[in-house]
Amino acid sequence: MSINRPKGTQDIVPGNVERWHYLEDEIRKICSDYGYQEIRTPIFEATELFQRGVGETTDIVNKEMYTFEDKGKRSITLRPEGTASVCRAYVENKLYAQPQPMKLYYLGPMFRYENTQAGRFRQFHQFGVEVLGGDAPLVDAEVIHLIWEFYRRIGINNIKVHINSVGCSECRGEHRERLQEFLRDKKSDLCSDCQVRFEKNPMRILDCKNTSCQEIVANAPTTLDTLCEDCAQHFTKLQQLLSLAEIDYHINPKMVRGLDYYQKTAFEVIAEGIGAQSAICGGGRYDGLVEEIGGPTTPGIGFAMGIERILAVLENQQKDSEEETKRGVVVAALGDLAQQEGFKLASELRKAGISTVMDLMGRGLKSQMKFADRQGARYVLIIGEEELTKNIIIVRDMSLGDQTEITRDKIINFLSDKLTNSELLL
Ligand code: HAM
Description:
Elements: H1 17-33, E1 37-38, E2 44-46, H2 47-53, H3 59-63, E3 66-69, E4 75-78, H4 83-92, E5 102-111, E6 123-132, H5 137-153, E7 159-165, H6 169-183, H7 192-200, H8 211-216, H9 229-244, E8 249-251, E9 263-271, E10 279-285, H10 289-292, E11 300-306, H11 307-316, E12 327-333, H12 336-351, E13 356-358, H13 365-375, E14 377-383, H14 385-390, E15 392-397, E16 403-407, H15 411-418, H16 421-424
Parallel strand pairs: 1-5, 7-8, 12-13, 12-14
Antiparallel strand pairs: 2-4, 3-4, 5-6, 6-11, 7-9, 9-10, 10-11, 14-15, 15-16
Helix pairs in contact: 1-5, 5-9
Bound molecules: histidyl-adenosine monophosphate.
């Protein structure tokens, strides 16, 4: 009996992995452009971190964590998200002692025991950013700008940025009371999850996906109705900055996000045309989180975006991220002696910084040409017995479809002159 991969996971195989490389390269590039440094935290953490950090009332903690006891009887959880881990690492490594704000990014797998469907996995990957130690609306605006610019660079433009302010612990108290008052006589009509939320975290009822709950809260008081002076000013300032940067945002007072740590700014990016799982990015401010997990009072804001969902959008837009440009060199040698010469030539080319692939299967010329085409090579260097005798190499230009003969000792210079920097690598 064969063994299959676990439900909700994916193998990322050659032919597909190139798209991941492309996104990973773009992620590292934009983070470096905006002055963000990478942080890597463990894939598993003490369960308590997420219970305290993400929050006991969230679906993630209640229903979706991969939690187990290790051999030392510690409760361990595969990380369902990155924010709590980054905050823990910030405290544990005393990153607060360094110049602030600390601008960090991460990229890696997250684990949630979810009901799987298109775009919703049990192991998925997030690119996330966290800025710790800066409380100004300018920080919020920069974080949202990074997202906007990232999607522009990779060619995703069919998106909506939803923003909201969920208030702080002060103004949220008043909202909670007003919302409970509004919902009290409608409570029994709410879905079973929302009946529990009514007591524990009524604000979450505002963005329940259940249609009858949505009808009930259509005219319910939102957090924007009860913002304190400080939160209201923060939100206004953020909108001014987003307008200055020409970011097309929409205020969505019902979008409150599913994690407990948010305060003030919350946002989500929605993509068109990829079905139900259209949230390609979510984030917000979490000024109380670092303190909650035992660190000094530190403001924080960040986001995470699902790589699988970005790839789905790219595919949907048919903006395939695979490079069309032909690159690098394939050495096609025919016969034993030519193969030895080809091997030597390949090592010289590689030493000269030219990406080179060689047929390792002793195929005939026709299939080696097909192989070169599949590799996307810019040039094929053909060596047979005749070329060996004449001390030449046939250089086939795969873009133009023509070929020339070059003497063996001129080949490296010839290729170095011909290949531009971007074509050197396969
Ligand atoms: P989140 O909204 O739970 O926020 O997840 C962020 C993004 O991860 C979602 O918008 C989606 O693109 C992707 N995602 C989430 N769950 C899945 C899944 N099961 N399968 C595929 N993709 C998924 C957070 O995780 C927060 N830590 C974001 C944040 C960072 N807030 C502040 N800083």
